[in-house]
Automatic annotation (TrEMBL), chain A:
UniProt subcellular location: Cell membrane
Signal peptide, first to last residue: none
Keywords annotated in UniProt: Cell membrane, Membrane, Sugar transport, Transmembrane, Transmembrane helix, Transport
GO molecular function: transmembrane transporter activity
Organism: Agromyces terreus
Topology relative to the membrane: Multi-pass membrane protein
CDD domains found in the cross-reference section: TM_PBP1_transp_AraH_like
Chief location bin: membrane
Transmembrane regions: 38-59, 71-90, 120-143, 149-167, 197-217, 248-266, 278-295, 301-319, 331-348
Protein name: Simple sugar transport system permease protein
InterPro entries assigned to the protein according to its UniProt record, in alphabetical order: ABC_transp_permease
One term under GO cellular component: plasma membrane
From TrEMBL, chain B:
UniProt protein name: Simple sugar transport system ATP-binding protein
Keyword Transport: yes
PANTHER family: CARBOHYDRATE TRANSPORT ATP-BINDING PROTEIN MG119-RELATED (PTHR43790), GALACTOFURANOSE TRANSPORTER ATP-BINDING PROTEIN YTFR (PTHR43790:SF9)
GO molecular function: ATP binding; ATP hydrolysis activity
Keyword Nucleotide-binding (UniProt): yes
Keywords carried by this UniProt record: ATP-binding, Nucleotide-binding, Repeat, Sugar transport, Transport
Source organism of this protein record: Agromyces terreus
Domain ABC transporter: 8-244, 257-506
Top-rank lineage group of the source organism: Bacteria
Biased segments, Acidic residues type: 516-527
Transmembrane spans: none
Region (Disordered): 516-542
TrEMBL record, chain C:
Highest taxon of source: Bacteria
The protein, known as: Simple sugar transport system permease protein
Keywords: Cell membrane, Membrane, Sugar transport, Transmembrane, Transmembrane helix, Transport
Keyword Membrane in record: yes
Principal location: membrane
CDD domains attached to this UniProt entry: TM_PBP1_transp_AraH_like
Membrane topology: Multi-pass membrane protein
Compartments (UniProt record): Cell membrane
MF GO annotations: transmembrane transporter activity
Pfam family, one: BPD_transp_2
Gene Ontology cellular component terms for the protein in this record: plasma membrane
Transmembrane annotation, as ranges: 17-34, 55-77, 112-139, 174-201, 230-250, 270-297, 304-330
InterPro entries: ABC_transp_permease (IPR001851)
Source species: Agromyces terreus
Length: 354, 542, 362
């Protein structure tokens, strides 16, 4: 039931992707017809394509290898965070601690690596720090009835504070640190000049996380329990599902994936600081919500959240290209988009109820 | 003794909540292949007993034996694995997932690549087919089904996990007649397959239509176990409300008021076709100044639902309401309050008291809400007001600064009564004001109601205790199955018996509707082929 | 007789939820005195007659915390939360600074008042947005105010064009740094505002209604209380008080640092409220408790610096305190301390979750 037990997971996804385009289209049609809840996710895909087209027309050089490669490379950590947040929001909860878990985990990781620890051990510890924070949130929420946003808010400040205790200076990884390999760029297709398809191990990790998450959510009893809890926690308990265990588990998953995101992010930048990741919880929530996951839980897809993360990433690219929009506006725009989607969700759900 | 062993036997069950004995030495047994009705008024302990059986509550005393083995369930999961499944009044499924998944959640069929959805949906279709529902598309979201169909899906789910005991807790409360018939057909099929079904419903007709045997609880105590066909409606109702027929008959209308000419007088409040989908059918009703109108009916009859519309606690979906001859639309309680209507809820804990506030604050809350926060009631005025009602209603302890949660139920009720009286209502609606409170407080509240009517306040009085309704009301509106089925002008000679007759007779035989006095007729029709259809295992009893 | 009266009085005091907050303040001060016996010493500046000392510093630092703590206690009492107070502080500070910078180097009182008025107006608008989203549209309070928390900092950056903005205006500066009868103006202001808010809330029926909504929203509705207007008022009040806090905090250095001003102050506000004995689930609130909480936090901040720990680490301590207080409020932990009577219900915590969710969205 856990992620580790199913090493075949990636193959499943790959096999699905290989089946022909026509088959895919007919399947998409059937899914939409039988399940209107995928509509928001489809809308997110449409928005993403629309942004790509607009960017190409308005600024040019969007639909090309290096821009799209960079989109994935620069947002690999956000994709992982969006996946993490999807688990939590699907149960109707929230995790505000993801950004500061990254700060704590990456500062601790870089300092340990620089102290001469084995890189593999460091990476595992970075991930486990996230797991521990997530476990703490989960226990507070499930067994002590603390509201999710309060428990994870406390974890958010705890993580930031601990990171600051470790160091308030930017901590730089040694240039020869093996961890940096995860952020190294490999050419897959050599295009003209710099127009190459490049990929980093970090991106591959992100994609693996997505595939495993997809498998867990759609092909395991645990994953279905996550959806059921979001539909109705009390019904799920009365149906005899393992509600308490699953609720703790989603926060553990969220924390663990935040640790993974910390590894991916640190390996790309080579620097960690206690102020890393401020506001990323908003980005992760926005990506999830844009991707069609309802904040009240029960509806949503992990692939939608990936699209949501790419929408946010592309938005940053377009803002940079435009040049007319001050970069300070980014959080306002993200907040505005999130608000609009939340309001849309509210309109849709209240309509559904009547 | 050829008696077969019961599949479920609960012996001497006791459950205590802080301050209340919810169940006190209750026995209960359930046999394979029978439909067993659990009967009792609100607060009798039916749901507590069910929750004890399903492991939601822990029992403080007694033993539970399932299939010959003494069990201690820790939660629904435990109970389910022992073969005890429950379908609740509010369908306990998740509407965001597909029909098939709802049937199979937690029992999905797994293959190499995790859940094998094809096999899982096929298994779901199999389970649905057992109830004749194989035509449902298991891929569709559950939310596309009506509540009635969802109820059947819930039963399929219970059967998919191979339940030997199926508990149906008020499954029919939101179903229409045809849907109920469909549910009954399924229940008969399952019974014939040897499933033991525990059925709870407030609709007497349904009890007589489907159940083979029944157990009656009253005030958390065991009242008796009977074969359904041996117990007529009168006997059943009187056992449920705890008065034998003789005692009921002797209670007359105590309010000796001169007969009023209702037609000549313009009513204070008139409802025309007032209704709300799913809670109360369109209803006509007049209430005159200074009149006490009783709403009689069993729980779930629509008595509370109708009252809520009169206050604006729920907004009416159809019909019109006129007050002093002027049409009003009550959107929320504040509107009702503004029109000098007050409503004391039956749900004292959730909708009545504000537990962490004091007696004084609870009492002034409604008038303060009406004035708005910017115009506080001066402390002196508050003290006078609170003092007045504490004395008048004899609230004990007479300490306005005590938190209301530390008062007894009866005194909480008096404080709430004081809250509504302080708003100087023209119409006061009291929903079960005397439930769960001691005898002394009960009498005091009844006196207060009579005095109010003398003072010209109109009162709607709702109570499960029929003799109380008869004693206080000038007119009695009788409700059943979410509609008004009759109106009785009170006077000498009117008894609780008559109301029981009206309720028992309604809908059983078409002829009985016009003839409310002679209720003997209904005993015969209840012995129709449906109830005669009793499985062999339970037959030997008695 | 008098001893009996005194013991009940003492017992009453111990039962006050913020009693332990007061004890904690004294404990922290004692800790500092151990490190430096002269910690509590007050001296009078011979030039201007002002009091100088660590205690005065603590009072001065507590002023902005007092403001947001009082606002937050009202919001939490309604069963909500306002995560945007820190960002509103930054916005308010940015508005004031930019206004005064654009007005030139005049030291006029008019400019200072204009800056304050504009800052508070903008804060009120942000609060009104929160209020409308919560009260009229029915969004969960934490998500509406979370968006405002993150977008607000962006708004502050836009106002200052991303730069730390400084201005000179002596009347404005006086608010944060001046002294009256030897005491810091900013603390006097804070206390006056707290008293005004306390009087308004407790002398009108506002406090009663806020508590009623927080304790039992259904029963309050049945009693005729309309929650929308009240919620809007409370969120606006919280934002305006955060605006005041912003003015106080930028006034000290006459510079707004958009990424630092008010940063993580929402934690301080929540912590102060919880220390003051208000439950995060809503209901009864205590403004006096929030004051004690704010003073404790200011003392804690100063103590941490005094003991030589990095000030950016303080959130960790505060987070731990919040977690501990939340644990103490939870039924499970309370059950451990109450005599070991077996609980009658096994699964109560999981069951009521559903209707509550309905309630919020209704």
């Amino acid at each position: 039931m856990t992620i580790v037990q199913n090493p075949q997971a990636p193959q499943t996804g790959a096999a699905d992707a290989e089946s022909g385009f026509a088959k895919l289209m007919s399947r998409v049609k059937r899914v939409i017809a039988s399940n209107p809840s995928v509509l928001p996710t489809v809308a997110a895909i449409v928005i993403f394509i629309g942004m790509v087209v607009y960017g190409e027309v308005a600024y040019g050089r969007i639909v090309q290898y290096n821009t799209l490669s960079n989109l994935f490379i620069n947002n690999a950590h956000l994709i992982i965070l969006a996946v993490a947040m999807t688990f939590v929001i699907l149960t109707g909860g929230i995790d505000l601690s993801v950004g500061s878990v990254i700060a704590l985990s990456s500062v601790a990781g870089v300092m340990l690596a620089n102290a001469g620890w084995d890189p593999m051990v460091v990476i595992v510890l970075m991930i486990l720090i996230g797991t521990a924070m997530g476990l703490a949130s989960g226990i507070l929420i499930q067994y002590f009835n603390v509201q999710p946003f309060i428990a994870t808010l406390a974890m958010m400040f705890l993580g930031r504070g601990l990171a600051a205790l470790l160091s308030t200076q930017p901590e730089r990884l040694a240039d020869d640190s093996p961890i940096l390999w995860l952020g190294e760029q490999f050419k897959v297709i050599d295009g003209e000049k710099v127009n190459d398809v490049v990929i980093t191990p970090g991106v591959i990790i992100a994609l693996l996380v997505v595939l495993i998450a997809f498998f867990v959510l759609h092909r395991t009893r645990t994953g279905r329990t996550v959806y059921a809890i979001g539909g109705s926690e009390s019904s799920s308990a009365l149906m005899g599902l393992a509600v308490p265990r699953t609720k703790v588990l989603v926060y553990v998953i969220s924390g663990t994936l935040s640790g993974v995101a910390a590894v991916v992010y640190t390996s790309r930048l080579g620097i960690a600081q206690n102020i890393t990741g401020i506001g990323w919880e908003l980005d992760a929530i926005a990506a999830t919500v844009i991707g069609g996951t309802l904040l009240t839980g029960g509806y949503g897809y992990v692939l939608g959240s990936v699209v949501g993360a790419l929408v946010l990433g592309l938005m940053n690219v377009l803002i940079t290209r435009d040049g007319g929009i001050p970069p300070e506006m980014t959080t306002i725009i993200t907040g505005g988009i999130l608000l609009i989607f939340v309001l849309l969700q509210r309109a849709v759900t209240s309509k559904r109820r009547t | 003794m050829t008696e077969p062993l019961p599949i479920v036997e609960m012996r001497d069950i006791s459950i205590e909540f802080p301050g209340v004995k919810a169940l006190d030495g209750v026995d209960f047994r359930l046999f394979q292949g029978e439909v067993h009705a659990l009967m009792g008024e609100n607060g009798a302990g039916k749901s507590t007993l069910i929750k004890a059986l399903t492991g939601v509550y822990k029992i403080d005393g007694g033993s539970i034996i399932v299939a010959g083995q003494e069990r201690q369930f820790h939660g629904t999961r435990d109970a389910q694995s022992a073969g005890v499944s429950t379908v609740y009044q509010e369908v306990n499924l998740v509407t965001n997932l597909s029909i098939g998944e709802n049937v199979m959640l937690g029992h999905e069929i797994r293959g190499t690549f995790g859940v094998n959805w094809r096999a899982t949906h096929a298994a779901a279709t199999d389970a649905l087919a057992k109830l004749g529902l194989e035509y449902l598309d298991t891929h569709k979201p559950l939310s596309t089904l009506s509540i009635a169909m969802q109820q059947l899906v819930a039963i399929s789910r219970a059967m998919a996990v191979k339940a030997k005991v199926l508990i149906l807790d008020e499954p029919t409360s939101s179903l229409d007649a045809a849907e109920v018939e469909g549910l009954f057909a399924v229940m008969r099929t399952l019974r014939d397959q040897g499933v033991a079904i525990l059925f709870v419903s407030h609709f007497l007709d349904q009890i007589y239509a489907i159940s083979d045997r029944l157990t009656i609880l009253r005030n958390g105590r065991y009242e008796g176990e009977y074969l359904t066909r041996d117990l007529d409606r009168h006997a059943l109702i009187s056992k449920m409300i705890g008065k034998d027929l003789g005692a009921l008959s002797s209670l007359g209308g105590n309010r000796r008021v001169e007969q009023r000419d209702y037609d000549a007088e313009a009513p204070l409040l008139a409802a025309k076709g007032l209704g709300r989908q799913g809670s109360i059918e369109p209803t006509d009703l007049d209430i005159h100044t200074g009149e006490v109108v009783g709403f009689a009916g069993l729980l779930g009859s629509g008595r509370t639902e109708l009252a809520r519309l009169l206050y604006g606690a729920d907004r009416a979906g159809e019909g019109e309401l006129t007050l002093h001859g002027k049409r009003v639309d009550l959107k929320n309680p504040a509107d009702g309050l503004g029109k000098r209507i007050a409503f004391s809820t039956e749900n004292r804990r959730d909708e009545g008291i504000v537990a962490d506030l004091t007696v004084r604050e609870n009492m002034i809350l409604a008038i303060q809400a009406e004035r708005g926060w910017a115009r506080p009631i001066p402390r002196k005025e508050q003290d006078e007001l609170v003092e007045k009602y504490i004395t008048a209603l004899n609230v004990r302890p007479a300490d306005p600064n005590r938190l209301i949660k530390n008062l007894s139920g009866g005194n909480q009720q008096k404080v709430l009564l004081g809250r509504w009286l302080a708003t100087k209502p023209e119409l006061l609606i009291l929903d079960e004001p005397t439930r769960g409170i001691d005898v002394g407080a009960k009498a005091e509240i009844q006196e207060a109601v009579a005095q109010l009517a003398e003072d010209g306040v109109s009162v709607v009085f709702i109570s499960s205790e029929l003799e109380e309704v008869v004693r206080l009301s000038e007119r009695i509106v009788v409700l059943k199955d979410h509609q008004k089925i009759g109106e009785i002008v009170n006077g000498p000679g009117v008894t609780a018996q008559q109301i029981v007759d009206v309720i028992a007779a309604h809908g059983v035989a078409a002829a009985a509707e016009s003839d409310i006095i002679d209720a003997e007729a209904d005993v015969e029709p209840s012995n129709d082929p449906d109830t005669a259809h009793t499985p062999a295992s339970a037959e030997e009893e008695s | 007789m008098s001893t009996a009266a005194r013991t009940t009085w003492l017992r009453e005091l111990i039962r006050k939820p913020f009693f332990w907050g007061v004890i904690a303040i004294f404990a922290l001060l004692a800790l500092n005195v151990i490190k430096d016996p002269n910690y509590l010493a007050l001296s009078v500046n011979p030039v201007n007659g002002n009091l100088v000392g660590n205690v005065v510093d603590i009072l001065r630092a507590s002023a902005p915390i007092l403001m947001i703590a009082v606002g937050m206690s009202l919001v939490i009492a309604t069963g909500g939360i306002d995560l945007s107070v820190g960002s509103v502080m930054a916005v308010s500070g940015a508005v004031a600074m930019v206004f005064m910078k654009d007005a030139g180097q005049s030291g006029s009182v008019g400019v200072a008042l204009g800056a304050i008025g504009l800052a508070l107006l903008v804060s009120a608008i942000l609060g009104a947005i929160n209020g409308v989203l919560v009260a009229y549209i029915g969004l969960q309070p934490f998500i509406s105010t979370l968006i405002m928390m993150l977008a607000g900092r962006g708004i502050a950056k836009v106002i200052t064009e991303g730069q730390n903005t400084s201005a000179t205006n002596d009347p404005f500066r006086w608010i944060a740094n001046g002294f009256v009868i030897g005491l810091p103006v900013v603390f006097l202001f804070a206390i006056i505002i707290v008293i005004i808010v306390g009087l308004v809330v407790r002398r009108s029926a506002l406090g009663l209604m806020i508590e009623a909504i927080g304790i039992n929203p259904k029963a309050s509705r049945m009693a005729g209380i309309k929650p929308t207007g009240l919620l809007l008022t409370v969120y606006i009040l919280s934002a305006v008080l955060a605006g005041v806090a912003g003015i106080m905090s930028v006034g000290t250095v006459m510079t707004v640092d958009v990424s630092r001003t008010g940063y993580q102050m929402e934690l301080d506000a929540i912590l102060a409220v919880v220390i003051g004995g208000t439950s995060l689930a809503g209901g009864k609130f205590s403004i006096g408790g929030a004051v004690v909480g704010a003073l404790l936090i200011a003392t804690l901040d100063k103590t941490i610096v005094f003991l030589g720990i990095s000030s950016s680490a303080t959130p960790a301590f505060k987070a731990i305190v919040i977690v501990v207080l939340c644990l103490l409020q939870s039924d499970r932990v309370r059950g451990w301390f109450v005599q070991r009577r077996k609980p009658p219900m096994l699964r109560t915590p999981s069951l009521p979750a559903e209707p509550k969710k309905q309630e919020v969205s209704a």
